[in-house]
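Lab meeting, action items carried over

1. Structure of the two-component assembly. Owner: GW. Status: complete.
Input record:
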Amino acid sequence: MLVEAEHLYKRFTEKRTKRAADACVDVSLVIEHGKTLGLVGESGCGKTTVGRILLRLIDPDSGSVLLDSCDVTRLKENQLRPMRKRFQMIFQESSSAFNPRMKVSDALKESLRLYRRYKPRELKSRADFLLSRVNLSRGSAENFIGNLSGGELKRLDIARALSIEPEFIVADEPLALLDMSIQSQIANLLLDIQREKEISLLFISHDLRMVEMLSHSVAVMYMGRILEYARISVIRERPLHPYTRYLWNPETASVLAGLPEGGCVYRSRCGLYEESGSPTRCIRETPVLIEKEKGHLVACHFA
Amino acid sequence: MKRFYFEKETTDRGGFYVPLYRRASPVDAVSIGYGLFVVAYLVVFFIISLTNSFIKDPMQVDIGQMFMSPSFEHLFGTDFLGRDIFSRIVKGTEAFFLPGLLCIAISTLFGLGFGILAGYYPRYCAGAVFYVLNIVDSIPRFIFILIIIILFNPSIYVIMIFVGITSIPKTASYIKAKVELLKKNRFMEASRALGLSQATIIFKHIIWIYSKTVLIIQATLRMGESVLIETSLSYLGIGVQEPAPSWGNMVAMGKDFFFQGKMWLSTVPAVIILMTIMGLYLLGDGLNSLYNEKVSR
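Predicted assembly:
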């Protein structure tokens, strides 16, 4: 499934204090059929918001999302519901993504039964197959979801997303909370499924190294803005934006400063900005995402 | 020697789910068991009285057999007209069984409807719905029942419909709170992302999985309440009228003979009333503490 997002803008406002935060500002991205886009950034930079907007779990303030050239931001909830079998999400907090009073098997059967008809025996074997696919023991099928551990829940979440057989998955930190052996299993599982079914994947993670394994191209986000966007080989070898370089090599202690007024959002932490003696251009002009090389977009004046 | 422990486990440990039989304390087990016994004999009595088998005719007047003390032939003796008290007690369940179920049905159905409406559309519906429901809630129930009886002299069904209507607000406010609480839960968003329809989310996840226990508890308590109302109205002579048997009017008829040494006439139905209402309330309380819900009477 071809996913195109254009100029997404979302601002969250706290009702009482009127404090507002821009969760995503002018985010545009393209995920080609059967490819993976990695979305990297620190926590709180709006990665999950982008994922939720793509699946229209929240409405963007402006901008449009085209899934196979169908604008989902303009559909009503009723029109959207039959389409939801084509795109699914793996949630970041799996513990709150399930009704904790259901059994594991019931939760899986519910999602299996949603779009396809199965006979009872097929349903059970299909649920067992999914559980074994994400390496959950068959005995855990009779457990209540509230009794599962964090890692088991994560795997169940992945199993549920797979049960729908979607064409596009937003995987919101699918590998967090898992230990190393399971991490590699799940990563391989995602790769296998992508190869088999040619699904498109938005892979959200804070870990650039993990993204490197799975993605074809990478978008680096900071404070709701995309700072660099390129193929993974380019990001690996020639990261241009100082923030991407920092993410590759995050040893240098950098204090999280607040959002500076106007200009480049990253300048309060930018090494390049300090080296070049605080140029006024960074303060006055907001850098736009420009194609510096072929297929390599950077939002920085001096990169 | 092996030692066994009764440990009361609750659902409070971070949402950890514990099977029901491990959560029940001995007190809960006893009160639920007793309550189920009461429910069982009520259902059996009702079925018997519908089919009219196994019992003597409760209306059969037999002057020759007045004031017979309890014996094998007449299990609870006979009354001042020679009618078999046991059959009258069995037949007496008809006086409150269906009206009680009607009352439960009305309060549950309308409570669900209004609760969901107010919970899902707090901006448009909650104000209006709860304005009306608060008015209904503030009606002094027993006095109003008496007024209705004096004015219209209605049947017990109409009275129970009224009781059902006056208990709608309790169910509605509970369901509204549940819907409002769960609506903000993240798993609602997940269910939406999965593609579940709004109706499935409400009726399967919110009502069936989260609220069914409370509805069952409320139903048992309400049944006890309707038994209480029916018997007390009949005792006062304004509910079910003679010669149709009701536990209340049996106590009322028998009380005149109490000090003549014929105490079974009023004592037997009175004890049955006590046992039944106590059983239903204990069942409600037991389920309440078992499911760790907080439903008030």
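2. GW to write a short summary for the group page. Key points so far: Residues 198-236 of chain B form the longest helix (39 residues). Chain B touches chain A at residues 15-17, 185-187, 189-198, 205, 209-210 (CB under 8 Å).
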